[in-house]
Amino acid sequence: MMVSYRLYWTLWMFSCFGQYLGQDLQFPESANGVVGGSVVLAPDNPPSTSILIAQWFFATTPIIAVGSGVATVNPAYEGRISFDSNTLALTLQNLRLSDSGIYRLTLQTSAGETLAGETSLQVFENVSNVRLIGPEEPLIEGESSANITSEGTGTITSVQWMKDNSPLSPSNSIIFSPDNRSVSISPVQRSDSGEYQCTYTNPVSSGTAKLDLIINYGPEDVFIKGQDVVDLGVRVSLSCSANSEPSASFRWKFNETDTNVTTDTFTIDETDFTHSGDYDCTAWNSVTNRNASQRHALLVKVGGGGGGLTTGAIVGIVIGVLVAFSGICGLIVYLIKTKKIPMLNKEQKGQGSGAAQSTQEPDSHYEEMTDIQKTRGDGPVPLKRSESTIYVNFRDNEYENVKH
Fold first, then answer.
1. What span, in angstroms and rounded, lies between the C-alpha atoms of 124 and 154?
2. CA distances from 206 to 101, 127, 202, 387 (A)
3. Of 130, 196, 136, which Cα lies nearest the Cα of 166?
4. Using one digit for the tens of pLDDT, what is the confidence trace for 229-261?
5. What is the sign, positive or negative, of the torsion defined by CA atoms of 23, 24, 25, 28?
6. 208, 217, 224, 299: least surrounded by Cβ within 10 Å?
């Protein structure tokens, strides 16, 4: 045992001075390990000649020295290390965070060469218990702000945020904390709805947490689907929809009167003329406490197919008829007040009687003269007509002038 300790200290003194003699052993740039795990440190180019003395160091602290087939281990590493004399690999087990640092290997060959090389080890704690803490109150579009905070244990070397499996980037409304472990969104928009994911990583482990964010909005874009004109005695359904989160509830009115229908569909089993009118659908969001409405005009007509006249067309026709009737009545009143209608009638009557007199009087007087002749027993009475005056010459030189 005394020999082993003397060899150990001799090799340690040698390594302290011999480590500056060469740097011929090549190692990977660094090694990573996890707390409680193990790691193997080995040169990429071990020498082909035989090794007289090999020794591993952590910084300047000896770990193990091997010479003439005898291994001397630092008591601080008892039960935690092993050495492979063929590959010169050092296996370090039950890793601790304090094991992070520089490790150095020195060799003394049978050819009298002194070779040395070094590598580094970084020990990490496993990432665990990652979770996201989000807002508890409902989020309303354009009004609310959302703060999402991440938590986790272990050695965290990076934090990455994702939304719907795509990287989440900062913007005017999305702001990250300096340590990148929380994000703030203000004000929230409906496009901010989705699955948020935060991942904690280090070289040996990672942990991910997810959180669903729901942005409430609406209702808006209320739309009623259904026929405008239907036949008498048919079944009709009007369907109401709205863009809303959560889904909106509905209420129907007919001609401004509540129908007590609270579903998205209003159904008339058999139409009659009393079903013509305006149907209003109001959508309501219980979270945003907002509502929006849409109106649908329905006309019930006698069957026969085709489009029929709409309510607006019928109203237009009625108004046109009333206007025309009012115009006619007004014209009649005007003519009566201006006495144009009575004068026309009087003139027409005068003209008619004059014409009748001019055409009928001569014949009447002629017949009268003939009758007088027959009564007197006279002979023929010559008659002479000239323009508007008829002269009759009697036997006793009596003249009668008949004018008309």
1. 8
2. 22, 5, 6, 136
3. 196
4. 999 999 999 999 999 999 999 999 999 999 999
5. positive
6. 208
